[in-house]
Amino acid sequence: MNVIDLRSDTVTKPTASMRAAIAACEVGDDVIDVDPTCDRLERRTAELLGKEAAIFMPSGTMTNQVAVRIHCKPGDEFICEAGCHIYNYEQGAFAQLSGVVARTVEGPAGVLSASQLKGLIRPFNDHLVRTKLVCLENTHNRGAGKVQPYDHVEEICTWAHESGLRTHLDGARLFNAVAATGISAEQWSRHFDTVSVCFSKGLGAPVGSALAGPKEMIQEARRHRKLFGGGMRQCGIIAAGALYALEHHRARLVEDHANAQLLAEAIRQTEGISLSPKDVDTNIIIFAVEPALGSSAQFAAELKQQGVLSLPISGTQVRLVTHLDVTEALCRQAAKIIKQVAGELA
Amino acid sequence: MNVIDLRSDTVTKPTASMRAAIAACEVGDDVIDVDPTCDRLERRTAELLGKEAAIFMPSGTMTNQVAVRIHCKPGDEFICEAGCHIYNYEQGAFAQLSGVVARTVEGPAGVLSASQLKGLIRPFNDHLVRTKLVCLENTHNRGAGKVQPYDHVEEICTWAHESGLRTHLDGARLFNAVAATGISAEQWSRHFDTVSVCFSKGLGAPVGSALAGPKEMIQEARRHRKLFGGGMRQCGIIAAGALYALEHHRARLVEDHANAQLLAEAIRQTEGISLSPKDVDTNIIIFAVEPALGSSAQFAAELKQQGVLSLPISGTQVRLVTHLDVTEALCRQAAKIIKQVAGELA
Amino acid sequence: MNVIDLRSDTVTKPTASMRAAIAACEVGDDVIDVDPTCDRLERRTAELLGKEAAIFMPSGTMTNQVAVRIHCKPGDEFICEAGCHIYNYEQGAFAQLSGVVARTVEGPAGVLSASQLKGLIRPFNDHLVRTKLVCLENTHNRGAGKVQPYDHVEEICTWAHESGLRTHLDGARLFNAVAATGISAEQWSRHFDTVSVCFSKGLGAPVGSALAGPKEMIQEARRHRKLFGGGMRQCGIIAAGALYALEHHRARLVEDHANAQLLAEAIRQTEGISLSPKDVDTNIIIFAVEPALGSSAQFAAELKQQGVLSLPISGTQVRLVTHLDVTEALCRQAAKIIKQVAGELA
Amino acid sequence: MNVIDLRSDTVTKPTASMRAAIAACEVGDDVIDVDPTCDRLERRTAELLGKEAAIFMPSGTMTNQVAVRIHCKPGDEFICEAGCHIYNYEQGAFAQLSGVVARTVEGPAGVLSASQLKGLIRPFNDHLVRTKLVCLENTHNRGAGKVQPYDHVEEICTWAHESGLRTHLDGARLFNAVAATGISAEQWSRHFDTVSVCFSKGLGAPVGSALAGPKEMIQEARRHRKLFGGGMRQCGIIAAGALYALEHHRARLVEDHANAQLLAEAIRQTEGISLSPKDVDTNIIIFAVEPALGSSAQFAAELKQQGVLSLPISGTQVRLVTHLDVTEALCRQAAKIIKQVAGELA
Ligand SMILES: [Ca+2]
Ligand SMILES: [Ca+2]
Ligand SMILES: [Ca+2]
Ligand SMILES: [Ca+2]
Ligand SMILES: [Ca+2]
Ligand SMILES: [Ca+2]
User: Fold this and answer.
1) In angstroms, what is the span from residue B30 Cα to ligand 4's centroid?
2) D325 C-alpha vs ligand 6 centroid, how far in Å?
3) Which of B75, B126, B231 is facing D222, going by the closest CB pair?
């Protein structure tokens, strides 16, 4: 049986051309001086994001948490949406490793408005943490790949900077937001001091993430990367995959978005399951399973029986993610299987 | 001018009898072995709270944060109400010193319901922190001295324990809840693994707080207290004041509550200011100042001109706290001044 | 039986006059604004140490660890003598709470020389911590109350400052060094950015320590004190004892030193036990028990039988400390008992 | 000019065959479930080290610091040699990220003896950290690739385990110790609870390290790896290089050792420079430059002019490391250049 893996866009495997690029790449010792392929990746990433510099790391968790560490000292606080990745899915590293507190604000489908944040900055007072940073996530994973409205981003970040706060964008799927809106990565990034992007998600690279920002902050990030154990020697081997992904797989993200619409449409048409949130902006679909059909885990188990891998993300919700390794045809087949499973469980 | 200090119940000063008790107390080296007065205070506190043991510390911040540390390791999470003291007014020590993450839930006037918490326990998963603890605050400072409804406390703690979580009560003003409800301290405490109480607030002692709980946890607390620098030598000197307060000033807290009603009533009758929250359960009154009358800071400044000290706690809110050192007569006078100031500013 | 407690100078109890001063002291809420007695203590301490400001805390562990925190960020390093209090007897708070690394250097009886330190400053490099601080201890507890030679202190601190390092003096027993040398507290303190002193040791106060330094650093210390739970309300109650101790018990420390010589002389004359280290500079005596006489714990147990309390500090070493509550007569008696016990155990 | 890079064995670049293995490797999402190549590498590593399980990470800093974290909680202490990598070259992560204290003991060329450690375990006491772990490094980088004497390792680890301590081996260059002694990796590892090995040093892989130990500890390590940001998706791409290195480049380490002897012999014969330490056990040579010839930095600069890259590791010491990418012929050439430079500078 042909397995259709829709659990995450992280499951993408390197293509033959990407493997060729990896096999042929030039390398150096990036801890002792520099790996030339990694250096090219960092420069190219910085350029695309309109930043002075960028630094490559083994994961998005590391780029995000190093960013928090650049902006916040122990006893500082960052503001973020309550469902965001940095707060929820990185094992509380901000507190655990860096002594930083999160201030969470709930936004519909992960979308925050400036009006929710104004008033949250704490006065200087020995009882209180110091508010230092606003983190946004675009697209928002838990919000089903929701694109942050551009004007919200602009208003939030303008307010933040005027108020003396720093801003960080968790742009693990920023290129999906670019593909969905036509707003360039540089334009999105303009509003943030630092931006992290992932190469191993929709772009299809095997491993890696980058953090971009002003030269000085990236220099500081290098120190924190070392501390976290993210200094890698001949890292060109993986940077080559990331560079290939960056150059060849950005444009095609629109295909993943179109395929996500196929799945969303099928779910809309099916009794017993419903999109939650309703909108599918990019490549992530989350749907709720009505109790009558059983739990999300049961639904996912049935799908697996039929060759479709999905991810239950709460007792009632299932996530699907389209990506490089699932074609339109496979998505149509998955859509059919979803309808069929819902029918059987009803 | 006779200053009426309603900023906090922490401003209470030791009475003549309390000073006499302090001057006469027996002492010992509590770090090297034991201070007998401190030991008596600890035993008496444990008894009142129905716990095996208690430990004296210099502040409520220390008892609360040591409690978090007993229950949570780095990478663990506690659930609390979004306006509570532990999350907001202890400089994020849980994260800063202990690597622990806070999960905040908003409750009206600081009151949480079990239904809000069910479903928040995170599954075991390397992406996620481990949910370990629920913290409640009773009475709730930011909720204007709100008494947690007893059945809420019972339901939340029962669910927590059934779910394998620990529970901690920030009972800085627990004796106010006792005075307001007639439910004993022991009865309230029954639902919690650990309970902290403050002696320097409504009870009127100069300094100190205690943490009560099972013997083993309190033994562990001793170690954390040393770490935080809370080991004190002849601490009987302050424990004597706390012990005096505990024995002589619990019953009279009802007077503070009656005085708070006087103030509340005056505010209800006054245009331009309004109780926020509406209920005054114990000794704390929070009122909102309408924009037409200026900011809360301006209102407080006017009150100060007339000899009434208050605490602006947000741009629009002012807090008043009744206590041992303000008699009914002074509260009546303060009520009159508040009305008068509101009238002048209108 | 009259117990002679030589375990530590921390066991000193408040005198009648000190108790009177405590009972009569003026107080205020030191967290909300200021406690006038605490304020007087802080000003007087700053004056004696020749510093701009000082801050009162519940323990020497807190003043020392707050000092480390003022000078060092996570990933910074301080240099100290391997047997010092900050490294050994404060539960590693520098690492545990502040993420700071200790670089230990062994000095005879706790005395360091500048030549040992030169060359230890780490170059800037992402592999390495940043060397930021030198901590000295004077007198040195584990070095048997050893007074640091003044020229060593001067040379070390001059080198440190010229090298861009900060310096902190753990002066828990600084006034013993003053009494022993005639060099003023101000003169000793001149070489250090921050100085901590204890009131509850030889000075005989029930509780407390102060940290002195430049105004800005002490302002920062206030924030860290709050974080550690060291903010105390009407702390005048204990500050009064400390202030009394500071004014009335400094001059008499020479008596403790004379009494220590009595004990030292007795030990020198006794077979089977010997001073270790040889010199007794101030009020601390450490002696080694020869294996033939049993362990240090056994020796201490025998002494206790005869009414003399001592502290075994290693398998073979026993510590004695003279102080305010043991008169010359009692020390002579203790000396006799020590000789006698050694004789019996031989 | 043909550059001979002797700065470190980390500079090794993947060979053509290794690149082919990388390009052809099977991959999977190692965060979501498992990467099959990484899984093979982990099993093979565990097997070679005689452990139940192993886990792959991006760096030796991460494997070492995760090991510290498995064995020690905040407020715990590990004992190590004063010049070791974990204490000196990992930015104090043990303190900075994990709140752990290091107790350093100096050993000649990094070699510790059990007699130095016995007596260092701290008693249970609230003043003290808890001694939990002994870390050894074999071969010892700063000791010039010194092989720890097997009987020392055995005696230290036996004592540690009998005393309730855990043991960790920083085996970044363990396979060099194996090649030098004929004692198997399994035999060395038997004495340690956990062992880390590096693939990117003498073995010649581009990136990566593994931590091996009991199944349960490695499961826990997985959680800490995620926290540090070391979870990598299709990590087979780099694991393939590590696996190739492990299978094909262990046996040839003896060649590096022979080449190191060539260099050592040249240094012995040369005036003005001398081996420091004297012994060259494996592939690392450290030599001291006499002041008459200038600083180590000047010596290294001259070598660089002649095409030999070396690493000044202190004001007077230069390090050379032989490895996969420098043949015997190149080492002979380097030896000649070293003699020549010493002659010119004399
Ligand atoms: Ca991928
Ligand atoms: Ca938090
Ligand atoms: Ca009070
Ligand atoms: Ca005392
Ligand atoms: Ca250390
Ligand atoms: Ca390599």
Assistant:
1) 10
2) 10
3) B126
Q: How far is C61 from chain D (nearest CA, A)?
A: 10
Of A74, A127, A223, nearest to C126 by CB-CB distance is A223
Residues 6+ apart with CB under 8 A from D98: D65, D68, D69, D72, D74
Find the closest chain B residue to C27 by CA distance.
Answer: B13
Report the DSSP pairing between strands C166-171 and C194-198.
parallel
**Nearest in space to C213 (alpha carbons), one of C133, C116, C96:** C133
Percent of chain C whose predicted confidence (pLDDT) is above 70: 100
Q: How does pLDDT run across B76-110, given as a tens digit for each residue?
A: 999 999 999 999 999 999 999 999 999 999 999 99
Residue D213 pairs in a beta bridge with D53
Instruction: List chain D residues with pLDDT less than 70.
Output: 1
Contacts of A303 (CB under 8 A, 6+ apart): A309, A310, A318, A337, A338, A341
Fold of B13-248: Aspartate Aminotransferase; domain 2 (3.40.640)
Q: What is the pLDDT of residue A1?
A: 64
Q: Distance between CA A43 and CA A243 in Å, rounded?
A: 10
Domain ranges of chain A: 13-248, 252-345
Class for the domain spanning B252-345: alpha beta
The residues, ordered by sequence, that sit 6+ positions from B47 with a Cβ below 8 Å of its Cβ are none
Decide: A65 and A98 in contact? Cβ < 8 Å: yes
Residue position matching structure tokens 């000073």: B19
**Which ligand is nearest the CA of A234, by number?**
6
pLDDT band at residue A2 under the 50/70/90 scheme: confident
Alpha carbons within 13 angstroms on the beta-carbon side of residue A205 total: 34
Tens digit of pLDDT for each residue in C137-193? 999 999 999 999 999 999 999 999 999 999 999 999 999 999 999 999 999 999 999
Rounded distance, CA A72 to CA A55, Å?
Answer: 19
CA torsion B34→B38→B40→B44, rounded to 10°? -130
Q: What does the pLDDT look like over A37-72, one tens digit per residue?
A: 999 999 999 999 999 999 999 999 999 999 999 999
Instruction: List the 55-94 stretch of A: residues with Cβ below 8 A of D.
Output: 57-59, 61-63, 65-66, 90-91, 93
Mark yes or no for CB contact C234/B65 under 8 Å. no
Tokens 């012995």 sit on residue = D268
Helices (H), chain D: 16-24, 36-49, 60-71, 85-88, 93-96, 114-117, 150-162, 174-181, 185-189, 215-228, 236-248, 253-268, 296-305, 328-345
The answer to whether D222 contacts chain B (CB < 8 Å) is yes
Average pLDDT over residues C55-63: 98
User: How many residues are present in chain B?
Assistant: 346
- What pLDDT score was predicted for residue D228? 98
Task: Determine whether the interchain pair C207/B23 forms a contact, defined as Cβ–Cβ distance below 8 Å.
Answer: no
| Residue C1 pLDDT exceeds 90 | no
Q: DSSP H helical segments within chain B, as ranges?
A: 16-24, 36-49, 60-71, 85-88, 93-96, 114-117, 150-162, 174-181, 185-189, 215-227, 236-248, 253-268, 296-305, 328-345
Does A126 contact C222 at a Cβ distance shorter than 8 Å? yes
State the pLDDT at residue C6.
98
Q: Residue B291, class by beta-carbon neighbours within 10 Å (0-12 exposed, 13-18 middle, 19+ buried)?
A: exposed
Which is nearest to B15 in space by CA: B252, B174, B329, B232? Answer: B252
Does the bond joining D139 to the residue before it have cis omega, within 30 degrees of 0? yes
Give tens-digit pLDDT for C83-128. 999 999 999 999 999 999 999 999 999 999 999 999 999 999 999 9
Please check whether residue C108 touches A, CB under 8 A: no
Dist. CA C41 → ligand 4 center (Å): 17
Residues A323-344 have pLDDT tens digits of 999 999 999 999 999 999 999 9
CA distance B140 to B149: 11
